[in-house]
Queue: 2 jobs
Job 1
Amino acid sequence: MNLAGCARRRESEITAFQRSSPLPHRAVIIGAGVIGLSIAWRLAQQGCAVTVYDRGTAGRGASWAAAGMLAAAVETEPGEEGLLELTLESQRLWPGFARELEAVSGIALGYRTEGTIAVALTHDDAEQLRHNFEFQRRFGLDLEWLSGAAARQREPHLRPGIPAAVLSPRDHQVENRALAAALAVAAQRAGAALYEGCAVYEVEIAGGGVSGVVTAAGRREADVVVLAAGAWSREIGGLPADCVPPVRPIKGQMLALRMDPAAPLLRHVVWLPNGGYLVPRRDGRLIVGGTVEERGFDDSLTAGGLLALLDGAWRAVPTIEDLPVAETWVGFRPGSRDDAPMLGPGGIDGLVVATGHHRNGILLTPVTAQTISRYVLTGRLPDGLHPFSPARFVAPAPVAAALPGAAQ
């Protein structure tokens, strides 16, 4: 199978879905993280017969390791302008999504609206922060420049003498582990079947389209297969090599400190100059994250990684030095070649891709669930999703060079 053939199938898949049999589809979702579970929930709500498989425990991959920041504004950097519309739309969906999910599952999500503060610790940091602030404000983002004194009025435990900060009141947070648990409950209550500890070995293809999957528990027929296995998406067999989504694991080491829940050191999420962050939880945990490492699936915690996290946190909030360490862990973000998600037709009729969210998986959960479920059910891909199609990574077919002496 050549690349041009793969590209043609991707371009024709909407037509193929419109020709498919009436609903409900038999949908198989590979991956029970927040992306896979949220798609399963939305599909099951519409009467689709959904089965979700995960090689481990539901929600225990990148969804468990995340920090739960919903930071569409302060995380926007030059080169990511194309992603901003998608992240802002998902951020807009989050409050209603959270209320609905809490009502259905009975699980509190820890959704917090205090906002995010990006701090500068030196005058050089302040110059860079001002540059980012002016860049972000050009897109109409709701941000407020703060003096160091004003920042410390909001968060008194910030280091004395910091020169400046930026407040982003719409950049909220959610307890990502509770989110995964709630989605598992909601999906099953809507009728989805969830199989944990059951790996999908390969996607079966027949007649030019998917026909099912082969799992540790046997074969399952399917009209649609949604590949939402995060950083492990490349490990699913059965797909032609040129149609496997180019996703890789991006290692992140993280830790949690234990604050007094009645007197927490921070209320806002704090974004640090080195790209780290501090995320306070209502139960007293203070999440400190996260390294960004190209180490494959190396799950080792390192002295250097933890030192970098603690040093960055201590420079911003010196009083953390008295806090006990509650937990350390490693996660693997699913990264694409351009660090944007891959959403939509997967190159074979009936195959849908929803992976590559990198550091935005929690933030993009509502919009991914909404758009991918609609695509599965209607065959129509929203215009705003076309820039994130997996087809963007398919090379065009090479133009054959003319032979010497051939007619021109």
Job 2
Amino acid sequence: MSQENMIKFECTECKRVNYFSSKNKKLLKERLQLKKYCKHCKKHTLHKETK
């Protein structure tokens, strides 16, 4: 993955960065929100894209 398209996902409950992904920033302007498993909270929580 190229660094330009890399995004980080942060848990909304514990505020830790758990996941990395990529997206096409030309097509998707808004920030992504996904329900992912947080190993620190030990449950599925909402993860938001950070800078």
